[in-house]
Design goal:
Length: about 70
Protein backbone atom coordinates (compact mmCIF):
# COMPACT_ATOMS: atom_id res chain seq x y z
CA UNK A 1 0.00 0.00 0.00
CA UNK A 2 1.27 3.47 -0.86
CA UNK A 3 0.15 6.64 0.90
CA UNK A 4 -0.19 10.04 -0.71
CA UNK A 5 -1.34 13.56 0.11
CA UNK A 6 -3.12 15.81 -2.35
CA UNK A 7 -3.98 19.46 -1.67
CA UNK A 8 -6.51 21.26 -3.87
CA UNK A 9 -6.20 25.04 -4.32
CA UNK A 10 -9.71 26.33 -4.98
CA UNK A 11 -11.04 29.87 -5.34
CA UNK A 12 -12.00 30.20 -1.67
CA UNK A 13 -9.23 28.18 0.02
CA UNK A 14 -7.43 24.85 0.16
CA UNK A 15 -8.84 21.36 0.65
CA UNK A 16 -6.29 19.03 2.22
CA UNK A 17 -6.56 15.29 1.60
CA UNK A 18 -4.62 12.11 2.20
CA UNK A 19 -5.20 8.62 0.91
CA UNK A 20 -3.92 5.27 -0.17
CA UNK A 21 -3.38 3.82 -3.61
CA UNK A 22 -5.30 0.65 -4.48
CA UNK A 23 -2.87 -1.88 -5.90
CA UNK A 24 0.52 -1.72 -7.54
CA UNK A 25 -0.63 -0.77 -11.03
CA UNK A 26 0.15 2.63 -12.44
CA UNK A 27 -3.15 4.41 -12.76
CA UNK A 28 -4.69 2.71 -9.73
CA UNK A 29 -7.44 4.76 -8.08
CA UNK A 30 -6.78 6.62 -4.84
CA UNK A 31 -9.30 6.80 -2.00
CA UNK A 32 -9.05 10.20 -0.34
CA UNK A 33 -9.92 11.36 3.17
CA UNK A 34 -10.49 15.09 3.62
CA UNK A 35 -8.27 16.16 6.50
CA UNK A 36 -9.37 19.80 6.58
CA UNK A 37 -8.71 23.00 4.76
CA UNK A 38 -8.32 26.75 4.83
CA UNK A 39 -10.60 29.68 4.05
CA UNK A 40 -14.11 28.54 3.13
CA UNK A 41 -12.95 24.93 3.69
CA UNK A 42 -11.55 25.52 7.20
CA UNK A 43 -13.84 22.94 8.81
CA UNK A 44 -14.22 20.65 5.80
CA UNK A 45 -14.46 16.91 6.28
CA UNK A 46 -15.39 14.19 3.84
CA UNK A 47 -13.95 11.76 1.33
CA UNK A 48 -13.23 11.40 -2.34
CA UNK A 49 -11.62 9.45 -5.13
CA UNK A 50 -8.84 10.31 -7.54
CA UNK A 51 -8.62 8.32 -10.77
CA UNK A 52 -5.43 8.90 -12.79
CA UNK A 53 -5.93 9.38 -16.53
CA UNK A 54 -3.53 9.69 -19.43
CA UNK A 55 -3.79 13.50 -19.23
CA UNK A 56 -4.03 14.07 -15.45
CA UNK A 57 -6.73 12.78 -13.14
CA UNK A 58 -10.45 12.85 -12.41
CA UNK A 59 -11.34 13.79 -8.84
CA UNK A 60 -14.63 13.63 -6.98
CA UNK A 61 -14.80 15.14 -3.49
CA UNK A 62 -17.76 14.81 -1.11
CA UNK A 63 -17.49 17.51 1.54
CA UNK A 64 -19.31 18.28 4.78
CA UNK A 65 -18.65 20.92 7.41
CA UNK A 66 -17.58 19.83 10.83
CA UNK A 67 -18.52 21.96 13.81
CA UNK A 68 -17.09 21.36 17.27
CA UNK A 69 -19.73 23.36 19.13
CA UNK A 70 -17.12 25.53 20.80
Amino acid sequence: MRLCTVDYALANGLVITSGYIHGPARGAPVTLVVDGGTGAYKNARGYGTLQPTSTGSNVALYLTRWWSGK
